Amino acid sequence: MIDAPSALRTAGVTHIVWVPDSHLGTWEAALLDAGSPTLIRATREGEVIALAAGLLLGGARPVAVVQCTGFFEAGDAFRNVVHDLKLPLTLIVGVRSATAFRAGQSWDSAAAFAEPIVAAWQIPYSWIDPATNTDSDLIAALRSVERSGRAGVILWAE
Questions:
Q1: Of the residues 26, 42, 92, 99, which has the fewest C-beta atoms closer than 10 A?
Q2: Where exactly are the structural domains of the chain?
Q3: Which of these, 121, 69, 130, lies nearest to 95 by C-alpha position?
Q4: pLDDT band at 115 (very low <50, low <70, confident <90, very high)
Q5: So what's the architecture of 4-157 in CATH?
Q6: Of the candidates 88, 20, 85, 15, which has an alpha carbon nearest to the alpha carbon of residue 55?
């Protein structure tokens, strides 16, 4: 089991910009209790991307956290920030039903399209499964994106 709030702090993340949805929303209490990274709630996923971009421009180290269906919705904001402005945005994208889908126990199409859509945007990505990965794996994935100087996506299996 991954203690995501602790791993995010250890990796040096300053802000989490999100719409607290699905499994990812379970981090909220721990993040609020810890006081860091700073939580910023947005009303829509496109706004998450814009707020995280502004924080990047201001010198912060934010991570945008959205569910995959929200990532689908935020495509234009993502395209502009990552490909036009070339900002090194880090996203954690919760892939709804990924575990059940892989096991043939869900027909939720969101899991089928998450990885191909990230690949279509030509963004490096990695998978984290909280059932099998560790805090160290999440920290390494976050630091890998930071070291690359480019945008990167961590697909979070839900």
A1: 26
A2: 4-157
A3: 69
A4: very high
A5: 3-Layer(aba) Sandwich (3.40)
A6: 15
Question: Taking a C-beta distance cutoff of 8 angstroms, is the pair 39, 14 a contact?
Answer: no
pLDDT computed for residue 31 by the predictor: 87
Please report, for residues 8, 38, 40, 77, 123, the alpha-carbon distance to residue 108 in angstroms, rounded to integers and kept in the order given. Answer: 29, 32, 29, 25, 23
List alpha helices for 35-134, DSSP H.
45-57, 68-73, 75-79, 98-102, 109-120
Q: What is the pLDDT at residue 37?
A: 95
pTM beyond 0.85? yes
Q: What is the mean pLDDT of the chain?
A: 94
| Residue 68 confidence (pLDDT) | 94
Distance CA 73, CA 96 (A): 14
DSSP string of 139-154, one letter each residue: HHHHHHHHHHTS-EEE
What would the two tokens of residue 51 be? 């707020």
Hey, what amino acid is at 128? I
Name the residue with tokens 């814009």: 50
- From 17, 11, 151, select the one nearest 86 (Cα to Cα): 151
